[in-house]
Amino acid sequence: MSMFREAKEGAIGIRKQKRADLVAEELKRLITQRNLKPGDKLPHEIKLQQMFSVSKSTIREALKSLEVQGLISVSTGPSGGATIVEVPLDRTFQLMQNYLFFKDVGIADVYTVRRLLEPELAAGAIPHLTEDDFLALERTIDLCDPASQAAAGTKMLDQRQEDLTFHDILAAANPNPMLRFCCELINEMIRQLVVFGNETPACEHERFGAANVVFHRRIVAAARARDAEAVRSLMSAHMEECTHYVTRMNGRVHGRLVLDSEMTRRTWLKPSETADKA
């Protein structure tokens, strides 16, 4: 392939690239040029060997590189091969955190961005929320409400996870992919990296949780009324209050490198899916 030869020649004098790296670059070009989508397959290994005039081991190394980047999934067997996949959020989060690990990111920085984005995210989701979405939102609230039977025995940390799931549901309904992406990344960052001081009393966590429940119920009520402006205003006030609580509770970003073993994407189940699993 002439493009492959040109890439090899262009690399000379800049840095010496491995053949597998060059093949991986060409495969990215192929995915772009053919406008391949998640679920589409790349040519089989033998065909790729012929296309690039390289060995089987080089092809496999190139495919492994793309798999690590989250661009493809490789399966074995007669019908196996490389399939295009959507890059998972957890992989993106890991790369982002690797970058932020060397930056001085504080809790105030995180919540400054949240205060700007969450109101717009919630307001934009309103026309697209389904009844299943509303039921899922209400379920997260029940799991955090001390007065609810569903919350009985639920650990405080699990309740805070459910608070974030509330925001994930709104994000999933928002059609703006850039806004959704930014807010989901922030939610994942809070899940994995925000910690509170050991001296923070349990009652403070309880107050924080109770305050979240109040706002979440009001947001759902406004959302059911399809009042986007009311939702925007409520979410803005909610984010201001969250900032107040997290600051008072000595919340901080525990900067660290995220391990592959920790990258389990959290998902929420619609009520119908929960019933299927019961």
From TrEMBL:
Transmembrane segments: none
Keywords: DNA-binding, Plasmid, Transcription, Transcription regulation
Top-rank lineage group of the source organism: Bacteria
Gene3D superfamilies referenced in this protein's UniProt entry, alphabetically: GntR ligand-binding domain-like (1.20.120.530), Winged helix-like DNA-binding domain superfamily/Winged helix DNA-binding domain (1.10.10.10)
Gene Ontology terms, MF aspect: DNA binding; DNA-binding transcription factor activity
Domain HTH gntR-type, first and last residues per copy: 17-87
The protein's name in its UniProt record: Transcriptional regulator, GntR family
Species: Cupriavidus metallidurans (strain ATCC 43123 / DSM 2839 / NBRC 102507 / CH34) (Ralstonia metallidurans)
